[in-house]
Structures are given as structure tokens and as C-alpha cells.
Amino acid sequence: MNSAATGRVAAIIPAAGSGIRLGADIPKAFIELAGISLLTRSALAMSVVADVIVVAAPTNELKQASDLLADVDAEVHVVAGGEQRQDSIANALKVLPEDVSIVLVHDAARPLIPVEVSQRVVSQLRAGAQAVIPVLEIADTIKKVDSANKVISTVDRNELRRVQTPQGFTRAAIDQAYANPEIVATDDAGLMEVLGIEVVTVIGDERAMKITTAHDLQIATALIGVTND
Ligand code: C5P
Hints:
Elements: E1 8-14, E2 32-33, E3 36-37, H1 38-47, E4 52-57, H2 62-68, E5 75-80, H3 85-93, E6 100-105, H4 115-126, E7 131-136, E8 142-145, E9 151-155, E10 162-163, E11 167-170, H5 171-178, H6 188-195, E12 200-203, H7 214-228
Parallel strand pairs: 1-4, 1-6, 4-5, 7-12
Antiparallel strand pairs: 2-3, 6-11, 7-10, 7-11, 8-9
The chain binds cytidine-5'-monophosphate (C5P).
């Protein structure tokens, strides 16, 4: 395997989730934002930094996913997703070419990721980090509540960060994390924490927002309008 200083970069795009929370009856990644699907937008953004792109698509929609990736300038693979996001990523890891030394994992649901964020992640990995995540500070005051929604305490927001994607890992680190299917976490950096691998942060970007609800889709549409001005 090549070292992270020199090997090829791959981006895994988990895109096998449903569109239920968006009120859509098609997979979320196939929903269009100003006429271009979330999947196409995310893959085009990743292709600026990645040589290889592996998309985990809904099992019955592999052809449609491939069609949406026709104009992406990278070595593109489409695999079937799994029950959970982590299963989808595990399936994608299985087809990575041998010479890939850096693996980015980027949610299809974050289509407006600016290239600078991906570049910040890759450059930290090239410089020797094993795991890198883009993060943002928190503007709101955060309260901890009990099961009856009564306030227990105020959490120090200076110690908290919102985490975005692409999260980046050396091939060795992500292979190690996924070699052990019993380890479960809500994001890939969480797997690294369980393994005791140091996770470095870089500055994210509000445009890398995750589209979960119809309201998010409206905000993203407005952001495109601003960007095009
Ligand atoms: O559902 P959520 O927005 O948290 O999903 C984050 C990303 O993971 C989305 O891009 C979604 O398509 C993907 N996903 C997946 N396989 C699943 C569930 C979610 O690839 N089983």
C-alpha cells in the first residue's frame, strides 16, 4: 500500500439512505437541487480532490446511480449500500483499488461542500494525520436536559464542535476501523476514537450543511442563488 504522502485519494459517498425525512418517495441522494441531484453534486465536488469515487447506492437503484455519475471525471465505482450508513461504507471499502492511500467519506446529503474544505482535509492527511474532520463552532447556548426536558446544566459550548464531512482517513486507519464490525459509531471519526487514533480538526463551512428536511432543501436552494450572484 502507498503511504498517505503519495498514494491516490478515494472518496466514498454513502448514498443509500431513504428520502423519508424529506417527505420524498425516492432515495434522498436522487433528489434534485436546482435541477442537479444531490448525488451528482456531491460526486462532482469530490472529483476535484479524489481520483477514485465509490458510491454506495440503494440496492435496487444501482443503474440510476451510475447514470447520475456519467459526467464525473474520476474512476467511479457503484456498490450496493447496506442497512446502516456504516454497512454502506463497509461495502464501498471492499472495492477500493490497492494504490489508494487516503480515503474521504462524504455524505451525498452535503452537496454544496466547497472544495477548500476537502483540500484542508487532504493536506492534513498528506502531512501525517491519520484522521481529519471538518468542524464548526456553535453559536447557540447548549443546555443538558433530563427525561422530563427540565434543564440540568449549561454545557460549555467552547468545547463543542459541529462535525461535517468529508471526514478523511489514512487507508490503514479506516481499514483497521472497519475490520472490526462490532465497533459502532454515528460517524467514522467515532470509530477512530474507539481505536485510540487521534482525530485532527480543520475548519468546515456552513455551505457543507447536511440536507435532512424539506427546510434544509430550501436553505440549500437559497445558498445556490447567493453563490451564483
Ligand atoms: O440519513 P442520514 O442523512 O444520516 O445519512 C447520511 C448519509 O448516509 C446520506 O448520504 C445517506 O444516503 C447515507 N446512508 C447510506 N446507507 C444507509 C443510510 C444512510 O449510504 N443505510
